[in-house]
Amino acid sequence: MKALVSTEYQPLDRISLADRPKPAAGPGQVLVKVSAAALNPLDLALITGAMKDFYPVDHPHVVGMDVAGTVTEVGPDAAGYAPGDQVLAFVPSGGTVAEYTVATVGPRLARRPAGLDAEHGAAIPESGMTAVCLLRAVGLGADESLLVIGATGGIGLYAVQLATALGARVIATASADDAGYVRGLGAADTVDHRAGDVVEQTLRLVPGGVDVVLDLVNRGEGLAATAQAARPGGRLVSPLFGPAELEREVTPVYIGSFDPAPGDLEDLAHRAADGRLRVELGARYPFDRAVDAVADFAGKHTRGKIVITVDAS
C-alpha cells in the first residue's frame, strides 16, 4: 500500500509517499480502509524528532493520527465492529496518512454517523477529544469566563464551541481577519494578538481577570505571563507543560496526553452530524499532494484543520 513516510528524524521536506506493507488487525483492533486523514502539530514533531525524548517513534514511520474510513477486517476480541462499518479514530502510534491503518477498539474509535462525511469526521478525533479533556480537567462551569489563546487552531476550534455550549463566556485570541470567524464559533469577545499584549487586552474586557485561561500556544515559563490574565485564585490549563506554581494562587492544570472517556468521540461525531458542532476545514489535499499538505500546515496560517483525502470513492 502507499503511505506518507518518514524514514528517520528528518526535515519535513524529506518525507515522501512510499510503499509499505498493508497492516493487519491484531487483538482488539480493526483494519480501516482510509477515506481521509487530518494533520496535527504533533505529527510535525514526530517527523522532525522535536519530541523524540518524550514521544519516540520507530522508523520507517507512517505520518498521521486522525482518520475516517471503512472497517475491512476485525481482529480477535474487537467486539462491536464489523466489516463495512464507517468509523473515525485517533491512532496514537501513527499510520493514518495511508491507504490502510489499524485502530484499537475503545474510546478513541467510534462509528461515523450519517450526516458526517469522511473529511469532516477525520478532522475531529485528536483536536476534539483534546478540547473535551482540557475543559473537563479544569472543571469549566457555566457562567465562568474563559480566555482561549490559540482559538483559530484545531483544538481552539472545538474548545471555543464546547465552552460556549457549557454556558461560559469565551474570549478568544484572533487577528482582525479571524475575529468574525471565532465569533461565529461562539466567542463573545476577541483580543487581537497582533495588535498588543493579550493579557492587557483581556483585563480591559474583564478587569478582575478571567476564571480560566486555556493556552494552546505558549509553554514553559511563557505560561507564567499568560496566567496574569486569570483572576486571583483562577485556573490555567494547557497541553504544554509549564511552572508548577503560578502567582496570585492561580492553579495550573496540565495534560500531556488526553485520556478520553467512553462516549466522548461518539458525542463529538453526533454533534457535528446534526450541526451542533462546526468542523472547519481550512484546506483539503488529495493523497498525491500529502507532502504539500504537511509543508503548508507547517508554514501557513490555516483556520481549523487540514485534511488529506486518501480514497474519495
UniProtKB/TrEMBL annotation:
CDD domains (alphabetical): MDR_like_2 (cd05289)
The protein's name in its UniProt record: NADPH:quinone reductase
Positions of the Enoyl reductase (ER) domain: 10-308
Gene3D superfamilies reported for this sequence: Medium-chain alcohol dehydrogenases, catalytic domain, NAD(P)-binding Rossmann-like Domain
InterPro entries per UniProt: ADH-like_N, Chloroplast_QOR, ER, GroES-like_sf, NAD(P)-bd_dom_sf
GO MF term set: oxidoreductase activity
Domain of life, per lineage: Bacteria
Pfam families the UniProt entry points to: ADH_N (PF08240), ADH_zinc_N_2 (PF13602)
Species assigned in the record: Kitasatospora indigofera
